[in-house]
UniProtKB/TrEMBL annotation:
It comes from Streptomyces prasinosporus. This is Lysozyme. InterPro entries: GH, Glyco_hydro_25, Glyco_hydro_25_AS, Glyco_hydro_fam25_subgr. Its EC number is 3.2.1.17. It catalyses: Hydrolysis of (1->4)-beta-linkages between N-acetylmuramic acid and N-acetyl-D-glucosamine residues in a peptidoglycan and between N-acetyl-D-glucosamine residues in chitodextrins. Keywords: Glycosidase, Hydrolase, Signal. Transmembrane segments: none annotated. Belongs to the glycosyl hydrolase 25 family. Residues 1-33 form the signal peptide. Pfam families: Glyco_hydro_25. It is an enzyme of class 3 (hydrolase). It comes from the Bacteria.
Length: 274
């Protein structure tokens, strides 16, 4: 039976379209990692605890205790912060978002980081990790070079790695539990090599279990900053038998997320000194 020319042409077109679609579906996930999922916030806008209320829920506020020291964490969402107001409310330490991935630097970092220091607070910087966009070492370098370094002045805390639910897509950034552990180790090792300090790890127990398999190998060297919006801390990730910091609410009476350091102001100064 003769084949019409128009039929051959359509066949070639369908074959070409199928090849393009097949190529798109076979791309590795990292090739499109820079594009947030539909409905996700713009990259750079992430901050500590974005997924905590969604995944862990909210509970009552903890009882105040004299052996815990009040702190806050802030990002570009807070803009220029009235640090004297926070100081007068009893806040004595602060962490400021410095960077995210290798593509973002907080434009308010100077006012927030220096302003907290100027009113007398002990301050530190944190990095929002995006393990699907660059290696741990590359992100550690980006962090240290743009506000995450440490100094032995007694009022600068070691940098914090904010590793939690991905606000832009897959909760575990498309990584297996083993690959996630390796990524975190890569960041921590590079931060240590660059600064001489072990970084603080900020996370939530439920995310840590889901995305690292409840890995316990970092607990001996890295202070734990646990995120849980409830009246108690609850169960901690594997390896840690106590927490160093606790983010207990994102709706505090004054600007920023509110936290408790698990100890006196003197112990907080000791952590800053190393």
């Amino acid at each position: 039976m003769p084949v019409h020319r128009s039929g051959v042409t359509r066949l070639h077109v369908y074959t070409a379209v199928a090849a393009v679609l097949l190529g798109l579906f076979s791309l590795p996930r990292t090739a499109v990692a820079d594009e947030p999922a539909p409905g996700a916030p713009p990259r750079g806008s992430a901050h500590m605890g974005m997924g905590v209320a969604v995944h862990d829920g909210r509970g009552g506020l903890p009882v105040r205790r004299s052996t815990r020291t009040e702190g806050v964490d802030v990002s570009s969402h807070q803009g220029d912060v009235a640090w004297s107001t926070l100081w007068d409310s009893g806040v004595r330490w602060a962490y400021v978002k410095a960077t995210e991935g290798t593509y973002y630097t907080n434009p308010y970092h100077p006012q927030q980081y220096d302003g907290s220091y100027d009113v007398g607070m002990i301050r530190g910087a944190y990095h929002f990790a995006t393990p699907d966009t660059a290696s741990g070492a590359a992100q550690a370098d980006h962090f240290v070079d743009r506000g995450g370094a440490w100094s032995a002045d007694g009022r600068t805390l070691p940098g914090a790695l904010d590793i939690e639910w991905n606000p832009y897509g897959d909760a575990c950034y498309g990584k297996s539990q083993g690959a996630m552990v390796n990524w975190i180790r890569d960041f921590l090792d590079q931060y240590r090599a660059r600064t001489g300090r072990d970084a603080v790890i900020y996370t939530a127990t439920t995310w840590w279990r889901q995305c690292t398999g409840d890995y316990g190998g970092f607990a001996s060297a890295h202070p734990l900053w646990i995120a849980r919006y409830a009246s108690t801390v609850g169960e901690l990730p594997a390896g840690w038998d106590s927490y160093t910091m606790w983010q207990y609410t994102s709706t505090g009476p004054v600007v920023g997320d509110h936290n408790r350091f698990n100890g006196t102001l003197g112990r907080l100064r000791s952590l800053a000194l190393g």
